[in-house]
Amino acid sequence: MNQRAEHQHEEMVAYVKQYQRVIENDLRESDKNHFIKSITINYNTIKHNPMGGIDVTGYVNGDKKLVFHSGIDKYIIENKEKIETDGVGITSKLAELMGDE
């Protein structure tokens, strides 16, 4: 990775760390079984998506097979910044454990 790309990645990691709570809240909202105990973001997978947001991959409860994918987007609505996910994709096994089939 060149120096500029490395700097951009570091900025995205800092942004995701700042707003990780948004991803966690979105995941927990779908967790009908209260299965999720911990959420881990894989910071090496963070990248810009074509629509301008940031794509993120992670896993829950320390199990790297229970994967989720999400994105974080920033919107300006009525002069206020709003941060939200562009949806969370989860593996079928994770969906089953969360009761979100």
UniProtKB/TrEMBL annotation:
It holds the Pfam family DUF1310. It comes from Ligilactobacillus pabuli. The lineage of its organism: Bacteria, Bacillati, Bacillota, Bacilli, Lactobacillales. This is Phage protein.
